[in-house]
Amino acid sequence: MSEAMTTEHLEHAEHAEHVAHEGTPFLIQVSMSIAIMAVVAATIGSLETIETAATLGAQNAAALSQSKASDQWAFFQAKSIKKSVHEVGSRQGGPQADALSREARRYEDESKAIKTDAEGFEHRVEEHLHEAEHHEHRHHILTMAVTLLHAAIAIATIAIITKGRKWPWHAGLALTAAGIALAGYAYV
Question: Tell me, what CATH number does 21's domain have?
Answer without folding.
Answer: 1.20.1270
